[in-house]
Amino acid sequence: MADVLKGVPVAAGLTDELTARCERLKALGIVPMLATLRVGENPGDIAYETGAVKRCEKIGIAVRKIILPSDAPAGEITGHIREINADESVHGCLMFRPLTDKAAERAACELLDPSKDVDCMTDASLAGVFTGSGAGFPPCTAQACVELLDYYGVSVDGKNLAVIGRSLVIGRPVSMLLMSRNATVTVCHSHTQSLPEITRRADILIAAIGRARFVDASYVSEGQVVVDVGINLDDEGKLCGDVDYESVAPIVRAITPVPGGVGAATTAVLAKHVIESAERFAL
Amino acid sequence: MADVLKGVPVAAGLTDELTARCERLKALGIVPMLATLRVGENPGDIAYETGAVKRCEKIGIAVRKIILPSDAPAGEITGHIREINADESVHGCLMFRPLTDKAAERAACELLDPSKDVDCMTDASLAGVFTGSGAGFPPCTAQACVELLDYYGVSVDGKNLAVIGRSLVIGRPVSMLLMSRNATVTVCHSHTQSLPEITRRADILIAAIGRARFVDASYVSEGQVVVDVGINLDDEGKLCGDVDYESVAPIVRAITPVPGGVGAATTAVLAKHVIESAERFAL
């Protein structure tokens, strides 16, 4: 049976380290602060917001919650971004996406000060992920995959990595982050032919498709490490990942559970980005 | 024996189309203009500059050549970028890179107006390549690979593509451009294990390593299309690609020669980007 790579210890390890760094910043007179910006009452957004606030409080990061009605005009949204940019006490901004108003979303992404872009909204952060320059911040969930592999001592250097999914939130950025660490990455997607054959050959498999239990036993092989980024509801309304855990876990070497895997580490990565932003500010 | 995918007809096809588009712009009172910015006397830069000027002249694009001594201070370089930004008659800027002065190079890249960034210097263009948004312009050589495959009717949708090399000039951008066209891309590099095994499995192989005749018969298989982006001098001072043409051509379905392959199409792609920029300006 596979080792279970849980996210909670990853988050706990990060939380301890970040709490110490937060105290050092406060000793310098800097209180790290995250501003969250939510438009509407999407339950997923609210759940993530709640988790992020809790994690930040635990570490000592202040949070300013901005909540707008779902029909807020674009000008109101961008007005808040302008305020966040101008306010030196705010070190990071998390805007829940996607917005219904695509033009407002684009305008907000173009407007945000890249130095406060802790979840990869801006061109500067996207370019930083693509080039590996370290500028800006990668998307929190993509970085959470990296932190999880690091925590469990899974080296990616020279390893074959198959990523299923090419979204800008996970698939593409996690591919770039792990390529920067010398993995040989194959990015798979809906047009990929003979997908199970490709994924079976990988040393590490990252599933980020958004389809409940899509990856079954036919997609995996012995010795693999499987990272499941999916968060789906199955037909019975039960939370599950992109991987069919019951059939895959007996085959592979290690696997992340859902819930309790990558998702459990994501808010700690968000907090890490806020602390890093505050530290850059302090320099 | 393989089909030889020459760059000259690709460039000729683009040149005809661009000449017509250039005439339409001139009829609207817009003369498309490229500004080239060269620091020092690197023979490779001079050769590319000469080719670019010739191509532009053929199409009807005006060129303003800026040539600075190799010890030009950073402020002089960025001063020219500011002038290019401010001058409405200039539609594209090609700065030959790398510069010896890294800080000056970075400053120039940060300063250039993204709408004039015809060779992917800016974060906006890099983010556009990464996200597939179409914002900015991809690097000319990476786009030349795409144009060449298009010209010869090589569909990449659903095909397995192996790219050797992860540079920001070729490997990474061409991977993203062809992933946007639904190829399943594996990006290989110096840490890749069992490289020949991976490349033999690909339908399309792009070699962008920068090592003379690195890809020999052991890296390829029947039916493949091989795109050679390398431009190297061998031990005898003879121009050659990253692919050992003599041993590979008898095996594969199609191959680009060096010289006369991708390189021959690159200045036409640069001209295409200048025309596109001028057209966006005209709208």
Describe what is shown at a glance:
2 copies of one chain form a homodimer. With 283 residues, the first copy, chain A, is α/β, with parallel strands linked by helices.
Describe the model.
The structure is a homodimer of 283-residue chains. The first copy, chain A, has helices at residues 7-27, 43-59, 74-86, 102-111, 123-131, 140-151, 171-180, 195-201, 245-248, 262-282; strands at residues 3-4, 33-39, 62-68, 92-95, 160-164, 184-188, 204-207, 225-228, 232-233, 239-240, 254-255. With 283 residues, chain A is α/β, with parallel strands linked by helices. Chain A has 2 domains: 29-119, Rossmann fold (3-Layer(aba) Sandwich); 140-259, Rossmann fold, CATH 3.40.50.720. The radius of gyration of chain A is 19 Å and the shape is globular. In chain A, 49% of the residues are buried. The mean pLDDT of chain A is 97. At the A-B interface, helix 5, helix 7 and strand 6 of A face helix 5, helix 7 and strand 6 of B.
With strands numbered from the N-terminus, the spatial order across the biggest sheet of chain A is 1-11-8-7-5-6
CATH architecture of the largest domain in chain A: 3-Layer(aba) Sandwich
Largest sheet composition of chain A: 6 strands, parallel
Identify the biggest protein-protein contact and residues per side: A-B, 29 and 29 residues
Continuous helix count of chain A: 10
In whole angstroms, the N-to-C terminal distance of chain A is 48 Å
Helix content of chain A: 40-55%
- C-alpha Rg of chain A, in Å? 19 Å
CATH class of the largest domain in chain A: Alpha Beta
CATH fold group of the largest domain in chain A: Rossmann fold
Give the amount of beta strand of chain A, in percent: 15-25%
Number of strands of chain A: 11
The CATH homologous superfamily of the largest domain in chain A is called: NAD(P)-binding Rossmann-like Domain
SSE order of chain A in H/E notation? EHEHEHEHHHEHEHEEEEHEH
Mean pLDDT across all amino acids of chain A? 97
Secondary-structure-based class of chain A equals: alpha/beta
